[in-house]
Every structure is written in C-alpha cells, then in structure tokens.
Amino acid sequence: MGKSNKDGGAAWVNYVGLFILLVCYAGAFWNVISAKRQESRADVIRLVHWQLELGVRDGLESLIEQFEAYKKEQGQTVEVVQIPIPERAYNQYVTTQLIGGTAPDMIQTGMFPTEYLGRFFHPLSVYLQQPNPFNQARLNELESADNLSEDEQKLKEALSSYADGPWMNAFTDGLRSQYQETFQEYFGVGFSTFTVRMYYNKNLFQKALGHSRPPESYAELLEFAKGIQRYAQESGEEVLPIASSKYQVNVFKHRYMANLTGNLARKFDLDRSGGADGLEKLMAMLRGDFTPWTPEYAAAIDAVQQLAIFFPKGFMALGREDSGFAFVQGKAAMITSGSWDALSYLNNIKNQPADKRFEVGIFDLPVITAEDEQFGEYAVGRSSEAAAGTGFAFGITRYTRHLDLCVEFLQFATTPEKNTELNLIAGWIPVVHGAVPGELMKNFEPNYVGYFGATSFDIMPGGKALLLEDQIYWPFISGDFGYDTYAERLWQALPAEAATDFKRMYESSKESIPNRQLRRSAFLSTMVLGEQSQEARITNEVNLQRSLEPLLKLMINQKKIDHMLAKTLDQTPDDPRVQAFNQAFFRALDRETSN
Amino acid sequence: MAKDISLKQVATYWPLYFFVLPSAMLVATFSYFPAASAIYHSVFRWNGNYIKIFIGTSNFQKSLGTPAYWVITLLLTMTMIYQSQKPTLFAKVTKWICGLGFPLVNLVVLSRLHPPAGLTPAAMLTPALIWVGLWLFFRWRMDVDSEYKGILNFVAVFLGGASILTALGLQEVLAWSLSTFVAGLGVWFLPSRTEKVPMLDGMRISQALAGVGMMVWSLAQNAGGEVALWSGFGVIAALVLANLLKMVPSIVTAVVIHRLKSEASNYWYRVLFVVPMIIPGMVGLLIWKFFFESKGLFNLILRETGIMHLLYLFDAWTENGVFLDKTRAAAMSTSEIMAAASEAAPAWLGNPDLVLPAFIVWGFPWVGVVGVLIYLAGLQSIDNSVYEAADLDGVGAVGKFLNIELPLILTQVRINLVLLIIATLQMYGQVLILFGDGGGPNGRMMVPGLLMYRSAFVEGYAGYACSIGLILFFLILVLTEINNRFVRVEK
Questions:
Q1: Handedness of CA A445, A451, A457, A459 (dihedral sign)
Q2: What pLDDT, in 10s, does the model give residues B292-313?
Q3: Is a pLDDT exceeding 90 seen at residue A570?
Q4: Residues 208-247 of B with CB under 8 A from A
Q5: B319 close to A (CB below 8 A)
Q6: What is the rounded distance in angstroms from the CA atom of residue A313 to the CA atom of residue B144?
Q7: Residue A175, burial from CB neighbour count under 10 angstroms (0-12, 13-18, 19+)
Q8: Any CB–CB contact under 8 A between A595 and chain B?
Q9: Which of helix, strand or coil describes residue A175?
C-alpha cells in the first residue's frame, strides 16, 4: 500500500471506531434518559414472570392496559412493565436481583427458595383480610342496576358471597396454596390454576384404532398405545404412540406415584400432618419400611416404565418443546401436559398445512383402579387436584416504592371479570369465584375429590437424595438397565446423600430458632417499650402471636427428630440390605458432622 | 516496551494514570472483588444472603475428603520433587523412599476401601493402549540410528506393566501408581552415560507429570471427598485431552489458508471463517442437539459409513454393554451383531455411556474460528525469507510445517492452550441448557462448574460453591503454570 493511499484512507477509516463508540454511548445515554423520563412522567411498576407460553403475555398486557386506563381516569399516570424471563434462568435471575437489591416491584413466586419470601417480600395478609374495593364497587353497581343479564346475575350472586368479606375469600381455594406455614403469612396472589391432562390426535386414533374415544383405564391406555405402535409398523407411517421428554416422564411419574404410594405416605406420616415429609421418609428407610423394593414404589415405577416403551428413543434427552412439536406436527398420537400448553398446542396445530391439521381430544390421565390386574392391589384411588391451588401468583418485593399501587394492581387483576378476561386470552383456568373459564378450559377443570400424597426418596426440596434418584432414574427409564440394577444403585448410593440432606435439614431447623427468638424479642420489646399508634400496636400484637407458633414448631421439631431417631435406632432391622443402609448412613453422617 | 519510571517522573505524569483508572476500577469491581468475596465466603456456611456461619475448612473437607490423606500424599510428592533436584546420597534415598511411599499409602487405603477390579478386556485394553501409544510417540521422536534405541522397549515394558497388574486383579489406580514408580526408577536412575539419549528429558518430564496425575487420581478415588466433584474432574480431564486433539484441525486450517497464493482467496477464506461468529452459540447448540438425536444425522452417518458396525463389534468383544445388552451380545453371532448395527439408532445424549463421547465429537470438524484467526495472525508474522531459505534447502510442505510454522506459532498455541484449559474447566452452560441442573443421564455430565452452580442456586449452599470455585481456580493456576513451563517457545 502506497504512502499517499495510506494517508488518504486513514483520514476517515480512523474515525469509524470513534463513530461507533459515540453511537453506542449515545444509545446508552438515551436509554438512561428515557428510563428516567418514564419514571418522572409516570409511576412505573415492573413485574417479572417466567410464563412465555402463547397468550399469557397478551393477557397480561391487556390487563395492564386496562389498569393504566383506570388509573388515568383517577388522575394518576401509571405504567406497568412486564418482564418475561425464560424458565431456566428464572431462579438465577430472581436470586441475583433480590440479593443485589435491584429486584422489580412484583415477582412471580415459585422457582426460588421459599425462604426468600420471608426475607424479600411484603407480607400480604393485612390486605387479604380486608375486602377488595373493586369487588365491593362492582357489587354495589350490580345491586343498583335494574335489568341484569343472566351472566351479570350470576356475577352478582358470586360477588355477594364474598365482596364484603376478606379479599382472600374470592379465590377458589381461599388462597390456601399461597399460605406459607413457616412464616404464617401470605406472600402471593394467584391469577390462574393449572391441571395436567392428556391431549390426543383424534384423526390418528380413528385411523389406527378405528375409533376416536379416549382410554378409560390404565390398561386401555397401554392397549391403545400398542395399537398405534402396531399401526405405525404396518403402515410404515412415522407416528409415535406417546410423545414424551424428561418433562413428560416426570408428569407420569408423579401421577402414578400418587396413585400407588399414597397409602405409604399416610403410613409414614408420624406427626399426622397429612403426608410424609423428608424426615419421616428417612426414618422409614432406616426402619426398613421403605426401600426401592417396597412393592408400592416398585409398582409405580413399573407403571411408568410400561408406558416408556411407547416413548421416542432417547426421550430423556429431549426437551418439552421437542415433544410438543412432535405432537402438533401429527407425529405422535398422545402427549401429556398441563393446561398451560393448551392454547399453544391448538394454535400450532391450526397453523399446520391443511392436510396435517387434526382434531384434538383431551382426557384425564387414566387412574389405576383396584380392578387393574397388574397394580390393582396397591391402587389407592384417584388423586385429588385440590393441591393445584392458585398459581401464576405474584408477590410484592420489599424494594418497591409503590406498595399501594402494586396491591391495587393485584386487587384489580383478581376481580371476577378481569380474571376471566386474563385467563381467556392466556388460555388458562381462572381462580376467582364468579370468573368463567373459557370453553377450552372446561376440559381442565380441577377435580377436587380424591386422595393426595406420594412417597419417593427425596428428603428435602432440591436436595442430594432427590438429585440422586433423578440421575439413576434417567438410564433406568431409558431402558439401559433393569429394575434390580436401579434399586441396587439407588440403595447403595442413597445413605451418603441422605446423610447430607439430613444434616442440612437439622442445621437449618436448629439455626432458625435463635433468629426467630430474636425476632420475637424485638416484637415484645416494641410492645413493652415502644410508643405506637393504635394501628401499629395491633399489627405488632398480630406479629407477636404469629411468631410463637413457628418457633414452637421448630423447637418441637428438634425433639421430634431426636425422638424419631431414638425410636428408629431401638429397632434392629432384620433385612441385611437395611442393616447395610443404616451402617452406611451413620458412617456418612459421622463424616458430615465431623466436617 | 514498558519502562520503569522514577518517583520524580510520577509527579509529572500522574494525570496519565487517570486514563487507566476506569478500567482498573471496573476490573477491581467485577473481577477482584467477587474473587476476594469467594475466598472469604468459602470458609462460611453461607446461603448467599443472611445465613453466614463460620465453619473453617469444612467446605473444603467436604469436597476434598480426609485431610490426612491429602497431607501425606502432598508431602511425599513435594519431598520427592524437592529432593530430585539435589545430587546427594541422602536426597536420592529420600526421593525413593517418598516415591515408594506413595503406592504404599494407596495400597493400604485401597485394600481397606475397594475390592479388586477383576480381569476385564476393557481394564486390560485401556492402559495397554495408552502406554503403547506413548511408546510409539517416543519411538517416532527418537533418532532410529541412536545406539540407545533399546531404551524404547524398556519404556514399553515398564509402562505396559500397569495393564498386566490391573489384569491380575489389582485396583487400576494402584497398578498405575506402581508402574509409574517403577518407570520413574528406570527413567531417573539411568547410568550417566545414557544422559545423551535424545528425548530423555521429555521422558522424565512425562514420568513426573504422570506421577502427579496418579496422585490426583488416587486422591480423588480414596480421600472420600464429594464424589460428584471428582467424577466431574474426570469428565473435564477427558474433555481437555480431547480438546488438545481438537486444536489440530484449527492449526492445519490456518496453515492451509496462510499458504494460499492468491491474496483474494486468502481474504475470502478469512471472511468465511469470521462469518459464523455472528451466529448465536445457542443456534449451534440446538443444531448439534438435533444432530445427535436418535433419528438424527449422526447415527445415519455412522450406519452408512460402517462405523456403527465397528462400534457394535467392539462393544460385543469388550463386553461393555454400551450398545448391546451384555448377555444378549454373548449369544449373538457376528452377522446378528452386524444386522443389529444396521438398524441401530442410539440416543447419544440420553445414554450415560455415550454422552461423553458425544460431547467429544461435538463441533466436528473442530475448526475453531477464534483459534484459526489467532494462528493466522502468528503465521502472517513469519518472514518470507524464512520460506525462501527453506525452499533453497529443499524442505517439503510437511517439513516447513514442522520446522518453521509450528515452532513459530507456539506462542499462539500456548495462548490457545491456556484459554482452552480454562474454558473447559469452567464449562457448564452447555450442560445446563441441554440437561438442566441434574447433570444429564446418571449425572454423568455433572462437571465441577455445574456442581458449583447447583450448590449455590438450587441447594442454597453458596459458601460451598465458593470453595468449589477456589479449587477450580487453583487447578487452573497449576495447569497454566505447567503449560507455561513446558510449552516453551524457542524461536
């Protein structure tokens, strides 16, 4: 390159970098300015959630627009910004935002440790125990109107049953599912509820089986799946009986675990809390009452394994999206998923080429009944979906500068009409009395009648034993080895992981006591020494009363652990496998505690 | 070149330091502060927030295991390395006592903790293949006319002994440490006249590194630390070794582009290699995921090329049970095995035995964009006169690569090597996206980074996660130091 060329070229080329830098700085500057301007011209509240399913963001956006319009009528400019975060990054995002003190105003609860609730979220019982003003206003409006339509009449009846009472009474479960026993407090308000069903391709059923009715029993589900497999082999058409992935396997597993091990859960429930907690399950393992060879557990695992032969090869490495695609493209006859996927599935099927579209049927996962030849003797009955409760719940973080506005938004969203509208667009099930589910969601209405509770080898949520069971289950359900190997491997590795979980539970329980005692002392001293308004005094009294129960529970829990351990150790198990488990567990626990 | 300046000059030029200040503050805030915080929190039981209880070295004990075993092994090794530098009789005796102490400690611990491995074709084959490979390497590098070439057979005999010891039922780790010790006796105790043997230093270094490797393996097996962490290091070790081989295609590609005579072609090839950089990594990840699916392209290629058939035959012969059920395979004829292979569609990412090989194959043909560009930059700095001189001497294409290009881009190779080791040790995002925080089938891909993430964000044990982070940090530091010492650039 000649000198003259170099000089001439460099004259402007050298400024390209500077130009890009300036553009970037200007962009960043503009971003900050616009955010500041946004905050100065309006009260901005941000809400974060992980629901990326079709319709949900639209539903929320519609709700937000209505709320903003309502506030404008009131003379207040408000902007509500929704921030959707992918499910896999949600826990990490929320954790860092909460700990870093930069969390948004409202956060969808779940996917993060429950202890964050007590630490970073506003308690909501004060508001939930008061009537929701939107419901009261609407009821007054309906009562003063003369000619009510049939729907309005129904709404009036529903509202009159709770509008003047506590806000929490508006929810189908009385918001029980949002109640945090550890904190004796409510931290979230739910917008929707969810159930799990099976979707099936009616056209494919017709072609392969000669009818399009859903299976009515577990045996029939297997039979239909076999029929579709046979059809695929004979016709050469590439269709699977059941589209599945790790996500769907867990759905089947939980359902059939509940179906077949519910009795075990009640048997191990020493404190009569209604189910077996991690500690009670561990005691059952040490006594030898619960091992991988326990017939109920083995039956539940077997029930899923018999279905797994109809899943695609390598299903455990597939994602929920992969199995969903296979179904909507007509490559699978059935798939199990929740009501949250209904709208996405139907919309995707509608967008297929005309010759690939099909009619979708929805049925509940068949229950294993006492009549079932294989597993009937362990069948408890159908499992209840009462625990589904209220989901898609939002809590208000302590970092918010607009607490009242956030509460108002939650109240606005949980009026019957708004709740209906949100869930109609989202394709989900409403949770407020008087809200009407869309036509599609009628297939998903929760079944509240039935048993609940299940038993598996998890000791604590997110713990090591749960991880171990999950890891060994993967190759087993994929067909890499049989049940004996699965049981042996699980039982051999479980003591060390159970010991780690046990130590962590024990520590966590023990360490909570001084913290709670300190908190209670603070309430007491405020009450005795502090000068307070009547309102603050009442709140303090309520706090004081509430702080006693979990404290007592924790103290009793320590005694319970000691008692249960002593009781368990008094009994010498006969089974050499259980003896080996005990030895390995206590050896591992010794090592854990010596660290 | 940076020069030291006097204090007097600082008084004049101090405003210049303000230009460095923003960068220094950013690095301090986002790199050094978190690192210091991790060191501090590694001695606490900390949930990332409000529970913070001082627990001393417990986090490290949980991940590393019995301190006594570590201390004894490290003392023995350090004494051995220290004494190996000295020519005195005392040093020699101490060195060999320590060298022998290492397998003895292993023998005591192993006999207490583990049953013998037992004779399996795989147990015999693996060490034998590695040692024979090493022997072939030395044979290739040594002048065949050397009067000391008999030493090569000596290497093969001692090093191959590990496979025989394993086959006799000795634990693999013990067999290897005994063999390494005996090989060390041979390599380090050669008569002084053999000091002229070419590559002798290389052999000694290899033996010393193998000894350190044995030490780490033995500690991982026997010290009783976090099993998932150590199995994760095993996975990482396999991936690092594979990644070393994966560097070769990038070097070859860079050399081929560099040698293109046409300037325009050279330019366009470089552009072609830069373009894929704009494709998000996630897209590549999903493409490879589909590729490895049971009905994916990978299985099709393996079946069509006959590689699948070879894999099946090998699996049946070694009785590994990866593709075929062991008992079923024993009863199958060769034609039946071939027929099974013709229809085979293994799920590479869903099988605990295949997931690691799948990660090794991942990214084939392993031409890394950044790597190619770095090597190209190095190659372009080679003066044309060097090539002209080589042409006059009649050096061929391969000769030019081995004697000119490779030695002159060793700086770039070293940089890439360090970056590669660091990236592999820290790797977990790909596993997290593919399999979630469980580590995939049977937890096989629970790499240390993922365990650290899981401990902090799923289990709420951030202090323990910090201790894993520190262990990773020290390992990276040691490996980088080894790399800097032994990958020498002699221009």
A1: positive
A2: 988 889 999 999 999 999 999 9
A3: no
A4: 224, 227
A5: no
A6: 53
A7: buried
A8: yes
A9: coil
A312 near B CB under 8 A: yes
The pair of structure tokens assigned to A149 is 């339509």
Whether A475 and chain B come into contact, CB under 8 Å, resolves to yes
What tens digit of pLDDT does each residue of B379-432 get? 998 988 999 999 999 888 888 998 899 888 988 888 888 888 899 999 999 999
Helix axes B121-141, B151-167, angle to 10 degrees: 170
Q: How far is CA B426 from the centre of its chain?
A: 13
User: Does A113 contact B460 at a Cβ distance shorter than 8 Å?
Assistant: yes
**pTM across the whole model:** 0.80
Alpha-carbon distance of A508 to B17, in angstroms, equals: 49
Q: What is the DSSP string of A559-576?
A: HHHHHHHHHHHHS--SSH
Is residue B458 less than 8 Å (CB to CB) from chain A? yes
pLDDT greater than 90 at residue B179: no
Could you write out the DSSP letters of every residue in B122-137? HHHHHHHHHHHHHHHH
Which of B49, B69, B289, B290 has the highest number of chain A CBs within 10 A, making it the mutation to test binding with A?
Answer: B49
Confidence (pLDDT) at A5? 47
CA angle at A201 for the pair A199 and A205, rounded to the nearest 5°: 120
Query: Residue A194: which residues within 8 A CB-CB, separation 6 or more?
Result: A338, A339, A340, A388, A391, A392, A428, A429, A444
Q: Are strands A43-49 and A106-108 parallel, antiparallel or unpaired?
A: parallel
Q: Which residues of B310-330 are buried (b: 16+ CB within 10 A; e: fewer)?
A: ebbbebbebebbbbbeeeebe
CB of B438 within 8 Å of a chain A CB? The answer is: yes
Question: In sequence order, which ranges of B85-120 are alpha helices (DSSP H)?
Answer: 89-113
The answer to whether residues B224 and B67 touch, using CB atoms and an 8 Å cutoff, is no
Taking the C-alpha atoms of residue A420 and residue A414, their distance in angstroms, rounded to an integer, is 9
Alpha-carbon dihedral sign for residues A184, A185, A187, A188: positive
Q: What is the predicted pLDDT for the residue at B250?
A: 92
Query: Which residue from A462, A474, A496 is facing B441, i.e. has the nearest CB?
Result: A474
Tokens representing residue A111 in the block:
């996917």
Alpha-carbon A311 to chain mean position: 25
CA pair distance B79, B95, nearest whole angstrom: 7
The mean pLDDT value of chain B amounts to: 81
Amino acid at B78: M
3-state secondary structure at position A183: coil
Q: Using alpha carbons, select from A470, A487, A503 the residue that is nearest to residue A589.
A: A503
Q: Is the pLDDT of residue A4 over 50?
A: no
Contacts of A462 in chain B (CB under 8 A): 458-460
Residues of B in contact with A315 (CB under 8 A): 347, 350
Model confidence pLDDT, tens digit, residues A385-406: 877 788 899 999 999 999 999 9
**Per-residue pLDDT reduced to its tens digit, B480-489:** 887 777 666 6
The tokens for B72 are 């004894």
> What's the confidence (pLDDT) of residue A11?
66
The Cα B437–Cα B292 span in angstroms is 20
Contacts of residue A552, Cβ cutoff 8 Å, sequence gap at least 6: none
- How close are the terminal C-alpha atoms of chain B, in Å? 19
Residue B171 in tokens: 């634990």
Tokens 């024993």, located at residue: B330
B439 and chain A in contact, CB less than 8 A: yes
Burial class (CB in 10 A: 0-12, 13-18, 19+), B110: buried
3-state secondary structure of A332: strand
The token duo for B3 is 């020069």
Structure tokens at A478: 């994929």
**d(CA B430, nearest CA chain A) in Å:** 13
